[in-house]
Design goal:
226 residues; alpha+beta
Amino acid sequence: MVRQLLILFILSLLTTACARSVGDNLPMITPTIYYKPVIYKEKDVCAGNDLKDLIDENDKILISLCKKNYDNCLLQGSCYVVEGQRTRNFNFTRKKDGISRFAEKKEARCPYGYGVQALCLDPFYSVAADLSIHKVGDVIFVPRLVGVRLPDGKAHNGYLVVRDQGGAILGEGRFDFFTGFFGPFDKGNVFAEIGLGDKKHRFGYQKVSEDIAKIVREYRAYPNIP
């Protein structure tokens, strides 16, 4: 507890210092948002020829979803499917033999889904990036996020950890911001409200030093979540 309070104090000082030191010449982010969809099977109604199967590595059909929900689950990289009192957690793994493969995760370690290397996705504090340019575990600082009030009532400190990648996330300033169960059009998605879901908007950012990155990763319980 004492160590966590010390980390929070250090981060508050670093945030203030970083926010004051940045000027108008920062590199710009081209932002988008991704999230974890929750699909209610009883509402997933469509014609039989519009159903698509989530298939695992061994060609086993895990579940069938209407194409719209299937496509969104694939696009976001994971989804929850609620069947009565049961909630199932599906995550995209890779493409094999031309077919997108999924795995059903039953553990509670990463309730919001997985990034690369089985890293837990951390809502509002993790991003997908181009891993040919950035490394997993890198930390970026976005001044515009400092003080933004999150759904849990806490103020954001501006720091985000690279925990994921995406097929369309290409380039040094191209980042996809993970917002948990809040979709880009959901009320309460504060990242969408400030424009992070629209590529037309630009925000300055800077990659922080490894010394600062270590503090941020510990604060966010990397590779898990707090």
